[in-house]
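U., I forgot to send this yesterday:
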Amino acid sequence: MNTPCIALLLTGNELMSGDTVDSNSAMIATQLGEHGLEIGEKCTVGDDPILLQSALARLSDQYPAVIVNGGLGPTRDDLTSEVIAALTDVELTENPEARAHVEDWCAQRRIAPNPANLKQAFVPTGCELIHNPLGSALGFAIDINNCLVLTTPGVPSELEAMLPALVTHLKARVGGEARQILRLQTFGIGESSVEQRIKRIATRWPSAVTLGFRAGMPQLELKLSVPSIEDIPAQETARALLEEDFGDHILGENSTRLAEKLQAVLRNQNKTMTTAESCTGGLIASMMVREPGSSAVLGTGFVTYANRAKRDQLGVAPTTLKEYGAVSEPVVKEMLLGALHRSGADIGVAVSGIAGPGGGTEDKPVGTVWIAWGTQDDLRTHTTVVSGSRSLFQNLIAAACLDLIRRHLEGLPPLPHYFTRQA
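Result:
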C-alpha cells in the first residue's frame, strides 16, 4: 500500500527573504512520518493573496490533504483565512469559540483584546476549529475540492503543540499506520562512521529495520524504524548490534541529553563534579545547570580566563604559566587539581585552549586545546586541535568534557572515537 502523501504550504514574506529559517516543515514531516504519513510536496509562498490562492488551489486539486502553515496571526499580512474564504466562496464570520479563545488568551496576559487580536476570531464559515493551547490564533480544518485543508500558525512552539490534533484529522481522512520508532541519542560518532560500521555487520542487520539519522549539535540521533509492533524483536536485535559495536557512544533513548546522562551517572554513584574553564568560558557548567537537579551534582565551577585568575582562584603556579603557557598540559593539570581541592568535588574537568579566530602560533595553532579530567588520584589529559568557528570550538569542547567525565565514571574506553579517529 502506498504511503498517503500530504502537501505542505508555507506562507510568509520572512521565509522568502531568509529572515526566518524554515524549521516547521521538518517538524511536521518528522511527526507525520511516525504515523505513516508522508510529505509529497512543500511549497513556500510570500504574503500575496493571489499567489497563495493559486498555490492552494493547485495543491488541493492534486493531494488528499494540505497543511497550511502560517498566516493566522493578527497583522494585515496574515492572509490565510481570507484566502481560504475566497477560494471556497464563503464569508469570514466571527466564531464565538474563537473569540472566547482570544479573549481568554489576552486575559491571561492582563491585556485588553484590541481589533488586531480579535481579527483572529474571524474564520471561514463552516470550518472546524483546531485548538491552539499556546497561542491566540486557532487553526481550522475545511474541505477544498474534496481535499482536507488544515491551517496552523507559524510559531514553532504553537505548531508543535497542535501536531497531535493534525495527525488525528489526517489519519481519519487519508489513513496511515504508525511506525514503531526507537530513537537513540549518541555523542562523538558521526553518520559516516556509523554507516561504515553498519556495512561490517550488514549480514546480521534485520531487514525489517530502517536506520535513519538526525544530526544535531552536539549529538547525533539514530532512528531504528520498523513497520509494525510485530517487528519490535527485530528492532531490539538491531539495537543490540549497535550497542555491541559502539555502545560507549550511546547516551540513551528519546531526547536524552549529554548533561542529563552525566547527571544521572553522578547521582547513581553519589558523586559531585567541578569545572575549571578557560576557553569555554563557563559553557561546561552552563550545560549542566540547564538540566533540573543540577545542584545535587555540581556545587562549584570556576571560570578562569585570564592567567591571573588561574593563579588566584585555582592556585596554578606562576612558574608553570611562564614556562609552558596557559594552553598546556601542566597548566590544565594544576587547574583541575586546584578546582578539586577548592570545591571538594569527587571528579572534575579543566580546559584551556585557543578558540580563535586569532591567538594561534606555529606550535599552538588556533583550535589547540588541552583537557584534564578525572580525580586527584586518577587524572588524565589529552590535547587536540578543533577546526571551525569560535562557537563550534567551544560547543564541541564543552560537550567532549562532559563526555570524558561520563566515560571516566562508567569505566568506558578513556580515549573515545572522536579523539582516536582524529589522531
